Amino acid sequence: MRERIHRYTLTEDKAMALGKVTVNNLNLGQGSFDEIERKTLFLGVGHVSSDTNTEDVTDTVIALNSQSDLDQLLDSDDSQLKTQVAAAQANGGENWQAWALPMTVDDDWRDALDLALHSVSPELVALCTPAGSASDLETAFAKAESVRTDQGRRLAVLSATPGIDDTEQTWSDYLAAQAAMVQPVKAYRVSAVPLLHGNNLGVLAGRLCNRAVSIADTPMRVATGPLLSLGSVPNDSAGVGLDNALLASLDALRLSVPQTYADYPGTFWGDCNLLDAEGGDYRVMENLRVVDKAARQIRLLAISRIGDRLLNSTPISIASNKTYFSRPLRAMARSVKIGPSVFPGEIKAPRDGDIEIVWPTRHKVEIYLRVTPYNAPKEIEANIALDLSTVNL
Fold it and tell me: Which residues are CB-contacts of 316 (< 8 A; sequence separation ≥ 6)?
């Protein structure tokens, strides 16, 4: 019996002496993020070319870029959808990317959007069918918010509104009709774009997605260049042409419109106004875009921290995770200096106090971040004084 016990003990000791090595790959969430920004999904009545697709048009999401042949993809005939896409392509510049989903007149664009979101992730949704009432704009906002709350995806909607009926409306009639549509609406994710020249929606969508500028830039920026392929200047029923006074009135109503400068060639854009309430933070598109970009990336970083004790309530963990969650802000804040010129980043660099981490309970953490945009001059006043203090002899 003793020998058996002795042999068993030796066998157990020998088994415990076996060496083991385990090597794990740790994912610290340091990779890059897919770019959602500068991509638009166009929804509108249109056709799919019979040369490329014979399926039901409502099931077709068409990928587009700056080299796409729109006659081949969206049919050679003109359509509501193709008109706006062509204008966006002209203004989108090099490496422009977008998607189009042709619809029939009976389709609900919300169903089309749900279908498209199964395969694409746009920053902007352009509704080519003009809104007919305030409720249409409110519906667009409700849909954008439902996508944000249900899926964690952030969209801004560019919604067309009707152009002038030059057989029946004067400019006063038109202004009153547009005011009745937008004044009751509070929708910080919606921009209303009147089809004054027929293709204004596409022109704006392309300008917003042009890679020559950042998402923090207003489409008002003159250095970006003039608008391309904008339709002809409209007249009202009395034959009076569109002028800057009416455009200023439409802009005051929070509509997004083009503009011109006296003695300066070219047509440019004003602000991309959003239908936020007076005093709101998101009355212009560039404010919403930088916050949405940061939010998309921070959301992914937060998902990777679920159930991970690297994020805990100790001071060292809080300090480490402030750095972790501020990574998108630091990347967005990078500026470039070329000679004497400094091209600023999308936002200012985060400072101490711009990110805070709070634990209200053992299992819930709240993260607060502050995004600070740069100033941009939208009104410049120059004052010139005449100096007569020196008498020339």
Answer: none
How far apart (Å, rounded) are the C-alpha atoms in residues 231 and 188? 28
Task: Give bridge partners of residue 101 from the DSSP assignment.
Answer: 43
Nearest to 219 by CA among 158, 174, 170, 162: 158
Per-residue HEC secondary structure of 38-106 comes to: CEEEEEEECCCCCCCCCCCHHHCCEEEECCCCHHHHCCCCCCHHHHHHHHHHHHHCCCCEEEEEEECCC
254: left (phi over 0), alpha (psi -120 to 50) or beta: left
Q: Just give the CATH number of 39-288.
A: 3.40.50
pLDDT digits (tens, 9 = 90+) for 168-202: 999 999 999 999 999 999 999 999 999 999 999 99
Query: Following DSSP, what letter does each residue of 162-216 receive, concatenated?
Result: ----TTT--HHHHHHHHHHHHTT--BTTEEEEE-SSS-HHHHHHHHHT-TTS-TT
Q: Where in the chain are the domains? A: 39-288, 311-393
Q: Which residue has tokens 């309430």?
A: 277
pLDDT the model gives residue 269: 98
| pTM reported for the whole predicted model | 0.91
